[in-house]
Amino acid sequence: MAELVFFSGTMDCGKSTLALQTDHNHRVQGRRGLLFTRFDRSGAATISSRLGLARPALEVGDTTDLWAEVSRRHAQEPLDYVVCDEAQFYDPEQVEQLARLVDDLGIDVFAFGITADFRTRLFPGSARLVELADRVQVPQVEALCWCGRRATHNARTVDGVMVVAGEQVVVGDVGGAGGGQPEGTLDVGDVGTVEYEVLCRRHHVRRQTKARGDGPGDGTGVVDVRRADPAERQLP
Ligand SMILES: Nc1ncnc2c1ncn2[C@@H]1O[C@H](COP(=O)(O)OP(=O)(O)O)[C@@H](O)[C@H]1O
Ligand SMILES: Cc1cn([C@H]2C[C@H](O)[C@@H](COP(=O)(O)O)O2)c(=O)[nH]c1=O
After folding, report:
1. pLDDT tens digits, one per residue of 112-127
2. Which ligand lies nearest the alpha carbon of 150?
3. Is 82:33 a contact under the CB 8 Å cutoff?
4. Which atom of ligand 1 is the closest one to the Cα of 112?
5. Within this chain, do residues 34 and 75 fall inside the same structural domain, yes or no?
6. Within-domain flag for 173
């Protein structure tokens, strides 16, 4: 029985890797599929994983009718599955089209995306996926907050400072782990340099990013849990 499955987690938890692995596993068993994405970080119509894998995909645009696009191709040569990356950026109507592909054509749909934005608000596409999916799955690999807890939320920083207001969609990457100019930095002109960082809820609420958590006297009155109580880090 075909399914609509939504694999959802924070940024940098391995969703695109899993999307490519899913495609690979189905393809090597002789199943036919299509790959879709929207606004991939690479800037191309590609599903790209930070592990270095990448495959070309079809770009979903504002007006793409996924039902029409997939059913047309399916009529020419039957399709078994569709992989949809960056699904948080899809329009709710496009998510409904994906559900119809499952129900009316028996095509499996594997959608991958972050659930919530940097303000902890649901993306409309993700909200519709949660509402319609047969299953919502959390990828096995956990992204970690700087404190060692599981990262559950996405933070946006502009010029290194965490922000909680702004445009919902700003394509970008998480900063590099080392010093110097971090990888994934996106300069968006007037706005400043935008980066993302994954945090546990506690540190998202307190607006404590890695840089602020490290810094003494950050003005929040929050104790740095790494120094105050190592047990709280919940590292093994
Ligand atoms: N150099 C590396 N060595 C091993 N694993 C890495 C490396 N760089 C990234 N990763 C893994 O890749 C994951 C990110 O995968 P990716 O599919 O790009 O994430 P997502 O699509 O969820 O943003 C990281 O959580 C980490 O586990
Ligand atoms: C939190 C958040 C993220 N984005 C963008 C940033 C990236 O381009 C993608 C997520 O990609 P990933 O493969 O899951 O790392 O989403 C955004 O536009 N707005 C946000 O609030």
Report:
1. 999 999 999 999 999 9
2. 1
3. yes
4. 21
5. yes
6. yes
C-alpha to C-alpha distance for 208 and 34, rounded to whole angstroms = 40
Q: Which CATH number fits the domain that encloses residue 24?
A: 3.40.50.300
On whether the pTM is more than 0.80, the answer is: yes
Dist. CA 134 → ligand 2 center (Å): 24
- Give the structural domain span for 107: 4-137
In this structure, what are the phi and psi dihedrals at residue 69, rounded to the nearest 5 degrees? -65, -50
d(CA 159, CA 161): 6
93 in catalytic set: no
**Is the ipTM of this structure higher than 0.90?**
yes
Domain count, the chain: 2
Catalytic hit among 86, 142, 167, 197: 86
Place of tokens 């105050």: 228
Q: Which ligand is nearest to the CA of 40?
A: 2
Please give the span between the terminal C-alpha atoms of the chain, in angstroms, as a whole number.
40
C-alpha 7 – ligand 2 centre gap (Å): 15
Task: Verify that 108 and 202 share a domain, yes or no.
Answer: no
Please give the Cα distance from 131 to 115 (Å, whole number). 12
Q: Which residue has the tokens 């956990």?
A: 142
CB 145 within 8 A of CB 200: yes
Site to probe by mutation for ligand 1, drawn from 6, 11, 12 as the one with most ligand atoms within 8 Å of Cβ, is: 12
Is residue 61, in this structure, part of any structural domain at all? yes
142 found inside a domain: no
